[in-house]
Amino acid sequence: MPVVYEPQQASKANQSGKKLFYPRVRLTGNVGTDQVAREIAELSSLTTGDVKNVIDNLVTVVARHLQASESVTLSGFGSFRYTLNKAGEGVEKAEDVNITQSKLMVRFTPASTRNTNGTVATRSLVTGARCVRFDQVTVVPGTGTETGPGENTGEEGEEGTFG
């Protein structure tokens, strides 16, 4: 199943005064903890309840370490860390800095491997993802399976693969 994107116009104009369009991911649904636990249980010898318990405990442990100003790295998956995003105006003196000037956010960075020349070879969760424009996704009759252009449909269209 491909990652679906749609065109979205920028809210601010560029230097030449034009509001340009860019691709933006179009979410097609949401999968919750219960579904993830069921799918992991199908791939392992654990029960759905065991997997859900591990996921719940993972969230608790990751939050505990983030709240201690530590980053958390899960091998093969990625790392989590807190960042502060600007939410107010800056001040002229360091002693006037206040937490109300920012918003606390969690930043996730997918794990990656590097080539010998330092370039990224693979990125967890991204490598191999196929992107298809939303108006070029079709449903194969009788299956409910969505496909992109040129995939089981005989159509051709714009598609991209990351890797």
- At the fourth level of CATH, the homologous superfamily is IHF-like DNA-binding proteins
Coarse structural class: alpha+beta
Major β-sheet profile: 4 strands, mixed
Overall mean pLDDT stands at 85
The tally of strands reads 11
Strand order of the largest sheet: 2-1-8-11
| Global outline | extended
Low-confidence stretches: 150-157
Can you give the helix content as a percent range?
10-25%
Domain count: the total is: 1
Q: In summary, what is this structure?
A:
This protein is an alpha+beta fold. Helix content is 18%, strand content 31%. It is built from two helices and eleven strands.
Descriptive account of the structure:
This protein is of the alpha+beta class and 163 residues long. The protein has a single domain, classed as IHF-like DNA-binding proteins (HU Protein, Chain A, Irregular). It is built from two helices and eleven strands, in the order ββααβββββββββ. The strands form four sheets. It has a four-stranded mixed sheet with strand order 2-1-8-11, with no helix packed on it. A three-stranded antiparallel sheet has the order 3-4-5. Strands 6-7 form a two-stranded antiparallel sheet. About 5% of the residues have low confidence.
